[in-house]
Amino acid sequence: MRNILTIFKREFVSYFSRPIAYAIIVVFILFAKGMTFTFGSFIASGDASLNYSFFSFHPWLFMLLAPALGMGMWADEQRNGTIELLGTFPISPWSIIFGKYLAAVSVWFITLVLTFPIVIAVNWLGHPDNGIILSGYIGSFLTCCTFLAITMFFSACTRDQVVCLIVSVLVCFVMVICGFDGFTLQVSRILGREAVESIASIGVIDHFSALTSGAFRLQDLVWFLSIIGGSLLGTSAILTAKRA
Amino acid sequence: MIEIENLTKQFGHKTAVDHLSFSVRKGEVLGFLGPNGAGKSTTMRMITGFLPPSGGDARICGLSILSNPREAKQKIGYLPESAPLYNDMTVIGFLRFCAGIRGLNGSARKEAVERAIETCFLQRVAQQSIDTLSKGYRHRTCLAQALLHDPEVLILDEPTDGLDPNQKYEVRQLIKRLGETKAILFSTHILEEVEAACTRALIVDRGRIVEDGTPAELVARGNGSLTELFRKVTTLDRAAA
Ligand SMILES: Nc1ncnc2c1ncn2[C@@H]1O[C@H](COP(=O)(O)OP(=O)(O)O)[C@@H](O)[C@H]1O
Ligand SMILES: [Mg+2]
Fold first, then answer.
1. pTM of the model
2. ipTM for the assembly
3. What atom of ligand 1 comes closest to residue B17's alpha carbon?
4. Which ligand ends up closest to the CA of B42?
């Protein structure tokens, strides 16, 4: 536990001692706000729950920005050789994996917290259900955590950051598009309704939109946590296999 | 202190380390010689628990690196070949991090970091960012990391590689001094280093020990020249590949 904290601190400080964390935070907030007031037509639609005008764009942003933040997680260690230091320290590989993962997750947590002015704005303009907004934030955060875990897995697979970025974005994109209305509509036209069900089940949107509309279902939580858990297990397996 | 038994490593079909057995006692500085690609780094990576061996075992102070990795790793200070460091940290920040990982806290950590900085002459660059360090300082920062927890066993992979003659001299003196109370295994392909710092030396070639003895014995076997012996017992890179 103490080792997780030591690794976490180093990683967390490292994000903020490079431009990367600031860049991600600024880009995310600019786009999230920008979309809300343009495509989301936040003011005109009177969408006080923020569901359509704010949260619905998040998966599309995370799909690009989560891999951008996480692509160096293991690639840097492997290229610099610091993986050899970590591997010979008297700590378990899981402390390193958790410490690193939690540091990246925290950067995103901070980013989401920094979007709070919009919550103040809706409360000022109308009478939103703040429970639904909180649930939306949870959905958004879990989606981001899922994409980060996937990025971490691919970062362990290759020492090339660009390859990691491309593959992670691609996988996350597939997970987003599979539940996207425009896409599922096309699929149901061509392949019928059953195909949509099975395709949507690998997508993140199904679970995400349940949360943004205020429905807290156990199955969604299990889905998110199992993808995260699976990716972390995969990371550990890849790192072990690489050394052999 | 270090006991190695039949340590073997295969990469695919290639045998990098071939049933290596030797031991290093307390107070001994063992020079690990051999041409490039002889398997020195691979051996050290197995002893330090970074690479799992294909066969055999290494025991550090009686603790097997395979069955007791955490306890064994705690007893080792390791300087990897390329002296890897986190470039976004300062020297002192990096050493504090490493000390924390070694379980040192509060004043114990502060003292350990100060002592390591002093031992490796890092006072001048302590607050400097690692990515602005010269190669000599980078190497010594990584060496300082290996000394933080005052380990009983030191494994140093080419500790003088890339240093200027003054720095080489200093590091050799340091190894000699530390060797009085620790068991040290260090690799090099600079032959003078053996006579300057080692109490014993092994020459390995293609993963096997081909010579073992005190520097004086080895010099005698090479008719007065260590270089002569080295050239005789090791294969050329071309032949090995
Ligand atoms: N990860 C690896 N995969 C495949 N071959 C390797 C790997 N690491 C080392 N080798 C090979 O093992 C041999 C020994 O390498 P090494 O231990 O680095 O030698 P030395 O340190 O004595 O120069 C070399 O032929 C090298 O190419
Ligand atoms: Mg080497």
1. 0.91
2. 0.90
3. 14
4. 1
